[in-house]
């Protein structure tokens, strides 16, 4: 595993390995149609710069889920708090929470909500992979705080 911030992070997957380059956010979603765990996916933004990180996430979510109408984020995780963002001509509303529970809520349509574990940018590659894997495990009932603690990711 390479956790050198100047080079790519190599993450193991079920089918081999995948390189994650510096400043590239990672998204992992459950691959089954069941939605019986705490989280539907996990997101590892690589910085606190919302304008740099969110467009790629919105594109990936739109490809996987369809049009995203709203995203709920922890206010403490970001340097700037935008109220909306247009990506590829589509406007997405951004809601802010002061709870700092390391989760992100994504709304598709009027009421279809998906819950994501949101890892802090400073997490190392090994811990991030472990947390993302745990978050999307079928039947997972652990909270974000429990997952971060179990994988050794410090909360700042």
Name some characteristics of this structure.
156 residues, alpha+beta, 3 helices
Blueprint (SSEs and pairs):
Elements: E1 9-13, E2 16-20, E3 26-29, E4 41-44, H1 50-65, E5 68-74, E6 84-87, E7 90-97, E8 103-108, E9 112-118, H2 125-135, H3 144-150
Parallel strand pairs: 4-9, 5-7
Antiparallel strand pairs: 1-2, 3-4, 5-8, 6-7, 8-9
Helix pairs in contact: 2-3
3D structure, described in words:
The protein is α+β, with helices and mostly antiparallel strands and about 160 residues long. The chain is built from three helices and nine strands. The strands form two sheets. A seven-stranded mixed β-sheet has the order 3-4-9-8-5-7-6. A two-stranded antiparallel ribbon has the order 1-2. The longest helix has 16 residues, at about 50-65. The protein is globular and about 40 Å long. The two termini are about 25 Å apart.
Cα(first) to Cα(last) distance is 23 Å
Output mean pLDDT: 81
Gyration radius (Cα, Å) is 15 Å
Proportion of strand residues: 25-35%
* Overall geometry: globular
Structural class: alpha+beta
What's the helical proportion of residues?
A: 10-25%
Low-confidence stretches: 1-14, 19-24
Largest sheet entry: 7 strands, mixed
Helix and strand succession? Answer: EEEEHEEEEEHH
Strand line-up across the major sheet: 3-4-9-8-5-7-6
Helix segment count? 3
Number of strands: 9
């Amino acid at each position: 595993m390479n956790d050198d911030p100047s080079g790519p992070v190599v993450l193991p997957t079920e089918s081999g390995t995948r390189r994650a380059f510096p400043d590239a956010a990672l998204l992992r979603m459950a691959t089954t149609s069941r939605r019986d765990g705490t989280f539907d996916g996990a997101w590892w933004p690589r910085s606190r710069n919302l304008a740099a990180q969110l467009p790629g996430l919105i594109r990936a979510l739109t490809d996987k889920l369809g049009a995203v109408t709203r995203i709920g984020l922890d206010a403490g995780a970001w340097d700037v708090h935008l109220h909306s963002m247009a990506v590829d001509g589509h406007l997405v509303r951004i809601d802010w929470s002061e709870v700092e529970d390391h989760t992100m809520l994504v709304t598709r349509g009027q009421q279809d909500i998906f819950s994501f574990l949101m890892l802090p940018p400073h997490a190392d590659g090994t811990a991030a992979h472990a947390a993302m894997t745990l978050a999307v495990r079928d039947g997972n009932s652990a909270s974000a705080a429990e997952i971060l603690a179990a994988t050794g990711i410090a909360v700042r």
